[in-house]
Design a protein that fits this description.
alpha/beta; DNA polymerase, domain 1
Length: about 290
């Protein structure tokens, strides 16, 4: 049995709907999946229902952009409680910042003579957490660029004239936010961000796991991070980071991690949930 614990839908910067993603997961024989859209959990209810119909185990999650010092990194919160008031408040703040970033990118493009309106990006994205890929798609859709690659190379990559810095919360705050929302905090694709030096600091702050298996991790890189996870007694996760067809061939099915890693993730979640339950009961004066 296998799983993919890093998937995106059109509720952030993917192209698949939750039902389509669940159908593909079934086609690839996946036993469990996690929806990890950026700064939102909008698609989780639909994904959960679609997975249940197909007998696939579903884990609600979200991917947050964070930083420690000047190092950008991504943290995935697994088993998040989507009704958690503070989590919803923070996700709403992240989404508003994302929307403002679209306005700023569109403004910079217009100053360059590229007539793109932010409203057209929002219509195309049709979600609360739009990002640069939506701007790129809008540029292609309106004939202002010939391809997504051209849009990024000319305008949207870091250092290009329409690039706008992304909001990043403190990594330590992100871990605490995930935990207080009942979740398990895992560092995504550490090999992409080259963040080895910050891992011990994150472990001290309560980091629960490392995404060792990833589409852009080489075999040697995977082994390297498996060693780091073992050294720090961290959970191991992995996934394809599929964004649909926006980045060429769909990636779902290319990374299939053994189900034993899902079992360990669930065991850790249940253990921490029980600990939090006892803590709450103890604080209320109840006997534990």
């Amino acid at each position: 049995m296998f799983a993919d614990l890093h998937l995106h839908t059109h509720f952030s910067d993917g192209t698949y709907g939750p039902e389509e993603l669940a159908s593909l997961a079934e086609r690839h024989g996946l036993k469990a999946v996690a929806l990890t859209d950026h700064d939102t959990m909008e698609g989780c209810a639909r994904a959960a229902a679609a997975c249940q119909e197909r007998g696939i185990e579903f884990i609600p999650a979200s991917e947050l952009t964070a930083e420690l010092g000047d190092v950008e990194l991504h943290l995935i919160g697994y088993f998040l409680d989507s009704s958690n008031e503070r989590l919803q408040k923070e996700l709403g703040r992240f989404q508003r910042v994302r929307q403002q970033r679209i306005h700023e990118m569109a403004s910079r493009l217009r100053h360059l003579g590229v007539p793109l309106q932010a409203e057209s990006v929002f219509r195309l994205a049709s979600c609360a957490a739009p990002g640069r890929p939506h701007v790129a798609r809008a540029l292609v859709q309106q004939g202002l660029c010939g391809s997504l690659d051209e849009a990024f190379e000319r305008f949207l990559k870091k250092g290009k004239p329409a690039w706008v810095p992304k909001f990043k919360m403190s990594a330590l705050d992100a871990i605490e936010l995930i935990h207080q929302a009942g979740g398990v905090a895992v560092m995504a694709h550490p090999g992409l961000n080259r963040t080895d030096d910050v891992i011990p600091h994150l472990v001290k702050a309560g980091l629960d796991g490392l995404e060792c298996f990833h589409t852009k991790h080489s075999t040697s890189m995977t082994e390297h991070y498996l060693g780091i996870a073992e050294q720090h007694k961290l959970l191991v996760t992995g996934g394809s980071d599929c964004h649909g067809i926006s980045k060429g061939k769909p990636l779902i099915g290319t990374i299939r991690i053994p189900y034993i890693y899902v079992e360990r993730l669930k065991d850790h979640f249940l253990k921490k949930s029980l600990e939090r339950g006892f803590q709450i009961a103890g604080n209320s004066g109840a006997q534990t």
